[in-house]
Amino acid sequence: MLKSNWLISAFFICFSLQSFATETIVIGGDYSYPPYEFIDENGQPSGYNVELTRAIAEVMGMKIEFKMDRWSVVRDALKNGEIDALQGMVSSAERGKQFLFSPPHAIVHQSIFARRDDSRATTLTELKDRQVVVQKNGIMHDYLLQNNVGAIINTAETHADALRQLSAGKHDFALVANLPGLYLEQELGLNNIMPVGQPFQAQQYGYAVLQGNEALLARFSEGLAILNNTGRKQEIYNKWLGSLQDRGVPWRDIGKITFWASVLLLIFLSVAVIWNRLLKREVNKRTRELHIQQQQLIQADKMTSLGILVSGVAHEINNPTGLLLLNLPIIQDAWRDCELTLEERFREQGDFDLGGLPYSQMREEIPALLDDMHNGARRIKRIVNDLKDFSRQEDDDIQEAFNLNDVVNTTTRLLDNNINKYTDNFSTRLASHLPDSSGNAQRIEQVIINLIVNACQALDDRSSSIQLKTFYLPTQNLVGLDIIDQGHGIDPQDQPRLIDPFFTTRREHGGTGLGLSISSGIVKTHGGQLEFAANQPRGTRVRMTIACNPESL
């Protein structure tokens, strides 16, 4: 039974092949769709599709006849069985319900054309409520009918008619194939229109037959494959679908004529470019140096102004603080004198009110309140003195002995409020018997303030910690400070640029990128350096080292 079925199938295939060899196949095409297919000036079918179909008929031994007419007419003719195939049709899922398509022999792009001086549209959504002209029964007509784009649809029989109407002021846009549009724009002299957008991806363009005519489609597909393998299809493609800008212009000849002139000009320009780059590099280097100096002067001026302001404020704060420190011991002595009398009354008459509260409570509270007030006044005086020391103008060349532990203590007192705003876990571990260093303690204090503020700003929440550790490296004659935070860390790509002038990751928050650059310069003048490393499992470790004073060893 299986053998008999195979024989029957082979018989029908042989019969079909014999029919194709003897019958004339009618091929339909658009009479005005250049450069793909059109009627030439002699009234004959011409174009890329026509030449390709003739080549397929030649290699496959088929007899063909062309029927060229309006696209809507030839499409209906295929649908009604009046012709056998269309030599060029864009495939789509909707069309696939009625037609079969060969492998594509070309790729088609659809473009929106508009008048040069009118409004533009680059996407389909911009066509809503606009007058759009398309080819009747073309792929764009199908698309607009099947999808709710919202455009007001107008139809024309050919691409040429659609573009002429657009050029004459009718409609807002034309939605047509890109290559025929460009071809007709030049051939018809339509200089006032141009493509403004390609809202679709590339579309496959090939032979089409009615569903059920697989045998004929297989012949065209086989012939197309043969032409592909022999290179003949590419020759036909290059002939008809090459760049429209190259058509009729001998660019290769012009290129040969101007080649040597271009070489000489290129050599001259190369020398000029190299010289210009060297000069520009030097100018940029000097400009950066001047800019850095200018910013440093501005920063120094700000610090000077801040120092003057701090000195004035410190003086105003010291006056009332001095009164508190002077008067509080007197009040404490007066309380101790009164306390004996108050205690005697308490024993004789029982509890009584003092300042609106029972004496039995106030006898414990008042001494503690007076002690807290005294300690608070002393702390205010210490902070004010630290601010005055920090703002004091000193010579950059000053060389005095200082201990890094003392500088760290002063700095943390200054930043106490700032630190408490960012974290609940701040700790300091100072090395014992740390050797002194020589230099400007105020400048080192400025560096440590900058590093601690940076660490605070890197924290994500108050539970994250910051640790300060001082240490001594006897083999290198260095003392140092590690600032370890559990913040968001440093991007590895940013790490090599941290001390570059004007590099900052907080520019939107007012950062200038000068803090670490200036700090690095200060540390280097003290015989040390700044180092940055990732802290596991998260955060950053900054290490500052400075030279020891040989006299303190």
Descriptive notes:
The protein is an alpha+beta fold. It is built from 14 helices and 23 strands. The protein has helices at residues 2-22, 48-60, 71-79, 139-146, 159-167, 178-187, 214-230, 232-241, 251-349, 359-391, 404-414, 416-422, 441-458, 515-525; strands at residues 24-30, 32-33, 37-39, 45-46, 63-69, 85-90, 99-101, 106-108, 110-115, 131-135, 152-156, 173-177, 193-197, 203-210, 353-354, 357-358, 400-402, 425-429, 437-439, 465-473, 478-485, 529-534, 540-547. Strands 1, 5, 6, 7, 8 and 14 form a six-stranded mixed beta sheet that branches. Strand 10 (131-135), helix 4 and strand 11 form a beta-alpha-beta unit. Helix 2 packs antiparallel against helix 8 (232-241) and helix 11 (404-414) crosses helix 13 (441-458). The protein is elongated, with a radius of gyration of 45 Å. Mean pLDDT is 83; it is low at 1-18, 244-251 and 509-513.
Rounded average pLDDT: 83
Shape: elongated
What's the tally of helices?
A: 14
CATH topology description of the largest domain: Heat Shock Protein 90
Portion in beta strands:
15-25%
Q: How would you briefly describe this protein structure?
A:
The protein is an alpha+beta fold and 553 residues long.
